[in-house]
Write a structure and sequence with these properties.
Layout: E1 6-8, E2 15-18, H1 21-40, H2 47-68
Antiparallel strand pairs: 1-2
Length: 78
């Protein structure tokens, strides 16, 4: 049986809050990387680079959530 890091939302799209320490670690690291990006690539000066950086982080977060969340009624459990 797979251990899920994030709960499934009961309605709508997306995932609920983390249900395992690994999920919480992912959320904390994501927030830290956003903060570090804001320091290294100030949005007021490097807005395009910062936007690309955030887009990559979001893409990675969504991928991890997709792989490590419990299936919803709209997703197959495979």
């Amino acid at each position: 049986m797979a251990k899920y890091w994030f709960s499934a939302r009961r309605g709508g799209l997306g995932w609920g809050r983390p249900i395992a320490w690994q999920g919480w670690l992912v959320v904390i690291v994501f927030g830290a990387l956003v903060a570090v990006g804001a320091l290294l690539l100030p949005p007021s000066k490097e807005w395009l680079l910062y936007l690309g950086y955030i887009a990559i982080l979001i893409f990675l977060l969504i991928g991890l959530c997709w792989l490590k969340s419990e299936p919803t009624s709209r997703r197959s459990s495979g």
